[in-house]
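Exercise (ungraded).
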Amino acid sequence: MIASHQALGRRLAALGEALDLRAALRPRGSVIEVGDGVARVAGLDGVGFEELVAFDSGALGLAYDLAAQHTGVVLLAGAGEVRAGEGVVATGHPPEVPVGPALLGRLVDPLGRPLDVRATPGSAPTAAPRLPVFRPAPPLTARAPVTIPLHTGVLVVDAAIPIGRGQRQLLVGDRNVGKTALALDFIAAQTPGDVMSVFVVVGQPFARALAIVETLADVGALARTVVVAADAGAPPGMQYLAPYAGATIAESFAADGRHVLVVYDDLTKHADAYRELALLLGRPPGREAYPGDIFHIHAELLERATALAAGGSVTAIPIAETTSSDISAYIPTNLISITDGQLYLDAARFERNRRPAVDIGRSVSRIGGAAQTPLMRRAARSLRLTMARFEALESLTRVGLDVDPNTKRAVERGRLVRELLCQPRLQPIPVASEILVLLATGEGWLDGAAPAVARRALGEALRRLGAEAPDLARALVDGREPDGAAAEGGGWLERLRALVAECLARAS
Amino acid sequence: MAAAAVERLLASIGAPALGTMLVAEACAELALLGHVAPGEAVVASARPSAARARLEAVLGAPREWRIRPELGAGVRVDTARGQVDATALGLARHAAAAVAEAVQAGAEAAP
């Protein structure tokens, strides 16, 4: 009997050793109070800033406010389970997210846990390698200038407000003017192609996240996209974390030399979640009650988007929502000053069914022509001027004033261009087609034609180009002016003009 | 599953002996934690503890003593400086976490 007790004692001692049970007895943190997505914890003396902490209930939190008497913890997963008096331990590491190809095609939360119910062959995302959610931006020496165009398939964007790989381009506009739809158009244009995508959903209804996944699946882009979602029902801590998790996932692909497009939809709601956390943690409120470091947290996030000298890039498309078209509100102006340009979506255009409702006059790309191919740059050079002139003159013709022939021509051409810039959702236009449209309108080859006729003629011209002038077709795809043999026979531009004129005559 | 197994194992040893051992461990950890003001601590135990006097020698009279059968054995003490959880439930939970961590490490190491 004594021998069996001794044997049991030895086995228990070995078990305790193996599981390090003594660690369970050591002093640890204890929840003093909890509510609204944050907890105050006593006894977490050695915890670091932004270190992950684990609660007895299985909930996770982020040590965020390191005061002398307590630690303010931002609750992440399982926030509803945390109770006062519960034990808390510091995990010793920052929050991490799984990265790599296992995430492609998945809808995950900011900690990488699957939110989709789809059974996926291969490894589960939680078993993938993990990287910290908060990472420093690449140093200056690791960055490269933005020179490679990111083809968005949206004519007005590629022509007038071009985006380069590694650029940060803000999408700004009122509620329901097609910001998310335009971002999805950008992602749809990357299939087929060499650009992967990450779509971050912050503070939106979960049904919207599911709709985004469905849309991406319908256009065949989901297999090359990761969707990270912290919906409106998620704790504010998860909403705060989501864009950083998306940035980490994007960076992991870029580190392998790939090009990545990451959409943050949207940073206004992200700022709201951060404001909520800051106020609950007792931080002093600043302008519009946002904490003083609201600019810093967005700059820190967007600085992580860049072209890398070693190859690969992260292109960021943050989205910001305005109220009553007030582009000078706090968060939009912050984001405008951080990013390399903005695409402004105008509610009035949207209501008139001119979609995408991009306002060329109020949109800008600070990278500009550097992110366009030479032929695209040439083809699009007069577009902004044409549209600006048209918008100034259109009001004259509306009131029925007699105008001189030049003005009349400018208005008619502007009207045609405006129609041709309208584009259905999720139907990206190939580069060759974009260049042909821009050349044809810019050079005046389509003057006087009705929009429907012009569209038919351009479609026909593009089809014939492949068969009758493959050298020209190749040049349009490559975005470079043809030279040598291609320039023979009266010049490539003259050959193109003749072809368009012939197609126009047939289409009429 | 690991938590339940450890919990069953600890229960089979005999709760009174285990409880005494865990209270002793709690007292040692509380002594390391530093001075706890009388009336500051909140103690929870699985049953009215015979080791109450021993614990009060370290803590002074606790603010509150709660009976929580789900703790299995031992005591959990909350102070302003943190918590000492010397309970069967705490040990079982720790064991479960250790096993889960080992399983995950194994999965990540696998090709």
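Further reading is listed at the end of the chapter. For now, observe: Residues 236-255 of chain A form the longest helix (20 residues). The longest strand of chain A covers residues 313-321.
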